[in-house]
Amino acid sequence: MADPMKIRATLQGDVADVRVLMAHPMETGQRKQGGQAVPLHFIQSITAQLNGKTVFSADISQAISRNPVFAFKVKGAKAGDKIVITWKDNKGETRTDETTVRAGS
Amino acid sequence: MRQALVLGFVAAFAAGPWLQAVAQTEDPVAADFDKFRAVLEQDNPAELWEVKGEQLWKTPRGPKNASLEKCDLGLGPGVVKGAYAQMPRYFADVDRVMDAEARIVHCMITLQGFTYAELAKAPFSNATRTPDPVSIVTYVAAQSAGMKLAAPQNHAKEKATYAAGKEIFFYRAGTFDFSCASCHGVDGQRIRTQPLPNFTKPEQAIRSVQGWPGYRMTGGVMHTLQWRLNDCYRQQRFPEPGYASDTLSALLTYLTVNSNGQVYKGPGIKR
Fold first, then answer.
1. Given an 8 Å threshold on Cβ–Cβ distance, is B48 in contact with A66?
2. What is the value of pTM for the model shown?
3. Domain B2-270 adopts which CATH fold?
4. What is the ipTM of this complex?
5. Helical spans, DSSP H, in chain B
């Protein structure tokens, strides 16, 4: 089971600033350990949903760093709205976490 | 090998006027690096270890199947908030001064039944493994974010440990005839592009504590001060000090007391 994500969603006006921190090794397939290449292991797709509607999705590759951070803004969000983030990697592992949008300062 | 050459180079010029001159001018490159760090700090992967450390702290584990919630970090059993900012300190139950990681290791041994040998066998993180004490230290340190450093100097042993730490800091030995002070006892030195803080001065000593435990982007690993000091010794070509040993507690006491009164920002992020 993959480790949980850390998600923060803060409201600024009617725009939610969402920041996601994912725990993932993101192996490029180039690194060697004991002479053996460490097999590819990276997140392939990410989707973000606001109250069940997909607002952001991305296909990414092994060029993204280990334990990656993604930040994006969602228009029309309100405090208390639910943000759900899902990632899926090339080994078929997947992880979904959610948070609620908090009012900004 | 490369690092050895660089260190030798710095040692040769350590007392020279050339290095002194660098410090006097406000370095625009350093300012840019500070900006870069400020951006990174907003999303520090150290938070992932914070979460893991919290679980490890609260879950019953080890041969005795106990959690660490009865562990006394100096402010009473189980009190984590603010504890990191007030360590190293004297602990009456062991009659010695311990830094945060040494104390956590002590709790894991006495409360949970782990042995020192198994914890000290491979105490530092690598790409595939983070030892439990590292995650726990990260969790504990995060609970002192925004607090002023206040390592106590009340007990006689605390004062003696500070004196010992100072002695160790200035002790020259090894194949390079090096001491911590060779790099960190003079203003304005640097290794390659890295400016080196002078830990004998309070306003610069904070940089020995600030940012640790830290997430290192090179390799994506979480490291504590135990690792950092071990690495200093390795670079000085000293024998490596024992994990969570009195030597490192003494050195950490010297560094932390020198930084007392300044605000600790919690786990950091490194290049």
1. no
2. 0.82
3. Cytochrome Bc1 Complex; Chain D, domain 2 (1.10.760)
4. 0.71
5. 2-13, 17-24, 28-41, 46-58, 100-110, 116-121, 132-142, 156-170, 180-184, 202-209, 225-235, 246-259
